[in-house]
Amino acid sequence: MGEFDLIETFFKRPARHATLGVGDDCALLPVGTGQQLAISSDMLVEGRHFLPTVNPRLLGHKALAVNLSDLAACGATPKAFMLALALPEVNTAWLSEFSKGIWNLADAHQCDLIGGDTTRGPLNICITVLGEVPAHLALLRSGAKVGDDIYVSGNLGDARLALEVFRGQLSVPQNVFEQARLRMEMPTPRLALGQALRGIATAAADISDGLLGDLQHILKASQVGADIETNQVVGTLAARAHGNLPLATQLMLTLSGGDDYELVFTAPESKRADIAALSVSTQTPITCIGKIKGSQQLRLLDSQGHEMTHAFQSFDHFKTD
Ligand code: ADP
Ligand code: MG
């Protein structure tokens, strides 16, 4: 099978939003009146982001999910995406499963695959997503204000738990591992929540490199600090109930775990009722984990409200120490 048959077979489908999808030199995408395009790319490299043995359907899901998570973080509605693929060979069974993983998630969010690039090379997947958000309503990292509450969606730490079990660093009962593994391999982009937070959240980011690291991006962009109640944070770890994990491990997993694809966001106290309501309407658990402070420091508090010393690091591909 050649390059163009491959594209035709696995990656070409009629577009919903695009005027022109796969097949020409450029795709064409109309933008609604009063809307802005929100655009983001994420690349997944074999050996770095996933193992060669990973189930290709789950890999397809995750490649798109991590991109949609960025649209969720800025409150955008997904419209289309581009897929740039380097493949070592044409393996039709693999491509069939990989493309199913992509299509299932794309269909769930009415997101069109409108183009991309296909080349031979070490397995590498780069997706660019395009979404729409009404002008001036995009959620940015820079809007957090002193006195705002800090919230996270869903569960933190479970994806990292699964990775540590794979690495042989931690062991948990099989059913706890299976749940955690699903969180690592099939993350849920929080799109409904992101859109519901327009006009309510003052700042937002998705948690891809660990809560503390991604929250730091908000603090830096907003020039503020934060007090974090760590007992609220560890409470979001789904594996906590049956995993028999020491507190230090729970803290590491939830504060600096990474691969969560949940949202961290801030909102004024006056929005507490709105947030409780949208947690219900979007069927997304939301936990308040602390407050924005003026000190420009990130402080971790224990269950007694005492400051903890910490050395939790978020993930950085180029950090050597
Ligand atoms: P060009 O030579 O103009 O760069 P290509 O020959 O690479 O275009 O691609 C032909 C068409 O197929 C284009 O519309 C391109 O966007 C699309 N395409 C290529 N690879 C993919 C892919 N992996 N998924 C979806 N569309 C693709
Ligand atoms: Mg061309």
Brief rundown of the structure:
The protein is α+β, with helices and mostly antiparallel strands and 321 residues long. It has ten helices and eleven strands. 34% of the residues lie in helices and 24% in strands.
Total helical segments: 10
Q: So, the CATH homologous superfamily of the largest domain?
A: PurM-like C-terminal domain
Number of separate strands: 11
Could you say what the CATH topology of the largest domain is called? Phosphoribosyl-aminoimidazole Synthetase, Chain A, domain 2
Note the run of SSEs as H and E. HEHEHEEEHHHEHEHHEHEEE
Largest sheet: 7 strands, mixed
Helix content: 25-40%
What number of domains?
2
**Shape summary:** globular
- By helix and strand content, what is the structural category? alpha+beta
Low-pLDDT runs: none
- What percentage of the residues does DSSP assign to strands (E)? 15-25%
Going by CATH, the architecture of the largest domain would be Alpha-Beta Complex
- Rounded to an integer, what's the Rg over CA atoms? 20 Å
* CATH class type of the largest domain: Alpha Beta
Q: What ligands can be seen in this structure?
A: adenosine-5'-diphosphate, magnesium ion
Termini gap: 46 Å
Strand order of the biggest β-sheet: 6-8-5-9-7-10-11
Average residue pLDDT:
95
Describe it:
The chain has 321 residues and is α+β, with helices and mostly antiparallel strands. The protein has two domains: 3-134, 60s Ribosomal Protein L30, Chain: A, CATH 3.30.1330.10; 149-301, PurM-like C-terminal domain (Phosphoribosyl-aminoimidazole Synthetase, Chain A, domain 2), CATH 3.90.650. 34% of the residues lie in helices and 24% in strands. The strands form two sheets. It has a seven-stranded mixed β-sheet, with helices on both faces. The radius of gyration is 20 Å and the shape is globular. It binds adenosine-5'-diphosphate (ADP) and magnesium ion. Adenosine-5'-diphosphate binds next to helix 1, strand 2 and strand 3.
